[in-house]
Write a structure and sequence with these properties.
- The structure holds two protein chains of two kinds.
- Chain A contains 19 helices and 17 strands.
- Chain A is an alpha/beta fold.
- Chain B has three domains: about 10-410, Orthogonal Bundle (Neutral Protease, domain 2), CATH 1.10.390.10; about 425-555, no CATH class; about 560-670, no CATH class.
- In chain B, the strands form seven sheets. In chain B, strands 3, 8, 9, 10, 11 and 20 form a six-stranded mixed beta sheet that branches. A four-stranded antiparallel beta sheet of chain B has the order 16-17-18-19.
- Chain B is globular, with a radius of gyration of 28 Å.
- Chain B starts with 11 loop residues before the first strand and ends in a 5-residue tail after the last strand.
- Mean pLDDT of chain B is about 80; it is low at about 685-700 and about 705-709.
- Classes of the chains: A alpha/beta, B alpha+beta.
- At the A-B interface, helix 12, helix 13, helix 14 and helix 18 of A face strand 4, strand 5, strand 8, strand 10 and helix 7 of B.
Chain lengths: ~525, ~700
Amino acid sequence: MARRTTTKAAAHPATTSSTGSGETITIRMYRQILGDCFLLTHDYDGRRFRALVDCGALQCIGASKPNTKAAVAHIGAVVDDLFADTGGELDLVIGTHEHYDHLSGFLLHFDVWQKFTIKQVWLAWTEDYTDSVANDIRDKKSKGLAALAALVGLGAEGKPNPFALDRTNAEIDDTVTRISDLLQFYGEIDPWQAPGGQALAAAGRTPRVPKVPPRSCLDVFDWLKSKAADGNVTYLSPGQQKVFGVDNRLKASVFGPPRTRDRLLKLDPTDGPTRETYLVRPDDVNALDVTLKLRAAQADTAMTDDPGHYPFAERFRRWEDETSTDAVAALYYKGQAKRRIDGTWLGSADTLALKIDGDVNNTSLALAIEVPGRDVLLFPADAQVGNWLSWHDQQYPATPVPLGGAQESAEQILARVIFYKVGHHGSHNATARLQGLEMMTSPDLVAMMPVVEAIAREQVTKTNPDGWAMPYGDLYARLKDKTAKRIVRGDGDRAEEEAVFAAPGGRFALTYSDNGPNPLWAELTTICRPA
Amino acid sequence: MAKMVPIPQPTARRLRVYAFDPNASLDLGSAKFSHATIALAWSDPTEEPISVGPVNEYLEVIDIDPASRQFYPPLDLNAPDVLGQDGLPPSEGDPRFHQQMVFAVAMKTIKLFERALGRKVIWAPAWDDDEKTYVPTLKLRVYPHALREANAYYSRDKRALLFGYFNATQRAAGASWIFTALSHDIIVHETTHAILDGLHPRYSEPTSIDSLAFHEAFADIAALFSHFQLYEAVYDYIEKNAGHLDQIGLLSGLAGQFAKGTSGHPSLRDFIDTKPDANLIENTDEPHDRGSILVAAVFDAFLSIYSARTVDLLRMCGLQMGATGPLHPDLVARLTGEATKSADHVLRMCIRALDYLPPVDVRFGEFLRAIITADADLIPDDRLNYRLAFIEAFRRRGIFPEHCLSMSPDNLLWDAADPDLTISDIDAEGMNLVPQYRRGDIVRTAEENRRKVWYWLTQPELRLAGPPNAADEQRFAAFRANARAVFAHDHACTGARLTAYLADIDADLAWLGISEPDREKLAADLGAAPTHFARWETFLKVLTDPTRATNVVSDKNVDRAWERELGLFFQRPSDNPLYTIRGGMSGLSVEVASVRTTRRTGPDGQDIRQLVIEITQRRRGYFDAKVQAANDATPPPQGTFPKGDFIFRGGATVIIDLRDNTLRYVITKRIDDDVRLDRQRQHLLAPEAMGFTYDPAAAKEPFAMLHRM
């Protein structure tokens, strides 16, 4: 531990230069994680405010992959460092959305987290159990996840069951693997329980009973809520503005997640499905659910099953039989194997898993934090395109105070962004182009990209042999243009980054946790401009 | 012993189906015309007979349901009990009826296209990765219960129609299970995707917001206008609406039960837009939505045509347009006849236009030009102003062709081909233009012709050095024609045959000025070349080299004129070398995508025989314009074949009038059109657009009733 204390003083200009007059903002990104863990520090007048945005890494799931396995302990070092540095006291914790790569630190090192003092918690409105739209979205998601988890269960190997999924079929195996990987983003998945009646939904539901220590990302949110205690948990909706920091000198504008009640209830098909932000279709979940019941029932009770699971009466049923000599069966089983459809029906489950993944990303709490001097730090979490586009649906604040007071558009705010936390680890669909990055016109723009490319590339399936494209080439290239290469990456080359930031003209100073080639974190510090 | 007297064959095989879908048969208003009977040819001597499945010349229905682990018993359409009652009676509960319905409706759609196109329907071939060649698809697979989801699609990969079924979440659907295989509209829609893909395989590439939308629109047009073949339904509708067809209802909407079961809407898409908005198209980029604008335009043209055809009838009955109230049953019958006829004409105009479209990257405006040109070719005198009806309907929806002086019918015709280019020598290729009746033969001759056209097209324009001399010219022409014929065969120019051929032409080669060492080297190179086109290129390389074939002169001007006309390059242009186009040994790769012959008969006995040739070329596209420019300007390192970020294609559809072997039209998409390239790039980069191919799963099945994503 000696290393940390000796290097930190040197590497932390904010600490040393805080003489009372200089007001600084420091953003720390923990490195070498494919996931988000950011510590925001506001120093003013000798006082300090610390806010944590997420704490998680993808690496800890699917532990068979080499890079993944090597990094399991890493997130532990991150949590320890956070504790040591903050003295176990966080003024604010912001949980952006319910995904493992943003929350797994809480799951894996809960013993340390229990010792923390957390004064305030901010979550998106979608995590509010008293919000009926949020509950609808969450119910649909939970039901879908439960069905998908059951499906993966059917695919479990070594089950002597004729109705299990045939993992020797490449198409089936690939699909099930992909679904299984996506499910791991949630931690342990609860079995589906039907929500209470309509009246209950409207009045606000009894919160679920969280598991402690937490076993799922949902449990983490529940724990954070109880940790901060009533009155200190804020659910944020788009258009809201909230002050915080030392003397409330910082102001967060809530960009997303969008509230889409109107759009959810509007069923005009000409709107097109692509325009909805949350669009898991109940049909898809239902279809999968019934199919699973059918296959599960068959497995348990050897063909005595609920006729409601079949489309046709018993006299029309004929089991699949590869040895059949029937002419049509022979046509199917013999030759032209590429034209068979044995696993094609799983495509809808695959799509559903991806869709839920995208939906949850779209529930990302996207914040634009204005610092004294009016510069803006943008934290969009993993917001995907739908979320980004919705930022322009309202003014900030949505309801001016006093009535008729000043409001700003998202475009005006984006024009002042000097720091951008790159969305979704630099993937192709989590930074809007014209309505997003291109509106960030400040010449001072810098970016931090929480990505480890080697690990993203390890996420390989048969149909996607190159793994995930993170960072996505075109976005990365454009980002370099926009920031004059002032980008700090989770797996960045230290010397290169230091050289870029040492060049004159930039607003930010770059420092690292230690002098080694692969430090635990990187920090960007800026001195606030006079108001 | 009694004498055997042959019994006359039945005229048709009748099969019962739901006219729309099972839900329409429950509705009191539509119950009386909810069932229909489709008549297929009893036996066509050129086709394989129907067997159990049903399986026939075009389709193989395979009723496996993998999600439920079922393989439903197949239907034998030749069983006496089935024959005796026009096929199984419509029933949701019997999977064999589902097989019958998908089969009958898909066959009806196929025959509809064949009638309008004047030739047989051929499915898209499959790429054989082991053999590096396309293999023909003789039969399209039909899986009536492939999926348990609210969806149905044509899978290019499996060359199959996959239909799903699902539990309805909405009560309005009137059934607990909904089968897309029982929706007339969905079957026609997906079958049309398959037919169109066979005709224009490159249209499935997301080159612009119009390209996939065109596929959707065309599939919807076929489904929509097939409603008007249902006489009883049209009669009832006209009776109820006092002769008007412009009311939203069963006829103008698609996939009623599917829509009710999923969203609670009366139809999935409805194509009557009372207030067409010329600006809407600018802001619509979901393929089904954008396609709907095109379908609405065609439907609007249909309404104008119907109105033009019936205004006299209404006047004779003393009725004004817009009158309401009950009509005389005779008048209703006459109006129904006109509606049915108008719909048939409109659909045929649309289908005929398919041959007049560019081979790649189609736009809505080009579809309009194709409709107008195809119709003008067949029916020069447009007495009822059908063409104007189309133009007006498209104009009102903001669908304008590019580079067109005005929206008048003459200006919309495709430009006539360059009169200086002749194709008189195409005869020498020995193309097989004898009409074929069996699909297997059609596929085979089309493949042979395709290769012959490729040889004809890729030959450089050559002449002999020195003053012209008729006998020598003739000898040279015969030499070249013979060479093309020899090289076009896969195996005819290898081993002993190659040696024999070279011995045959040795005198000719010497006469052309090729020295003995060069002739020996040519023999060795030809022996080493792996494919017929590699041999051909090796051969051409010597022939076009003035230092080796000293008695031969290349006439670059003719080649350049063809390049200009076809919008692609045989040789790298000197001013802009376009290294992103892949080159072979002697020139640039050019693909003859298809060669097909058509025969059409107009209403006044016009007879048109055409040869339609699609020629394409590919060029590497890059997402970054600077990278593009750099790659265009510099050749890739020797022996490497970079992939680029996407494929950009150009080329032309060449229409030849076979009556007098004249070049009628060359419909071009230029390969060096950087504006079009940039538009494709922007389209692929826009995350909101459908061409969002970064996710391979979403791009895999582009022809779904609803897109999964």
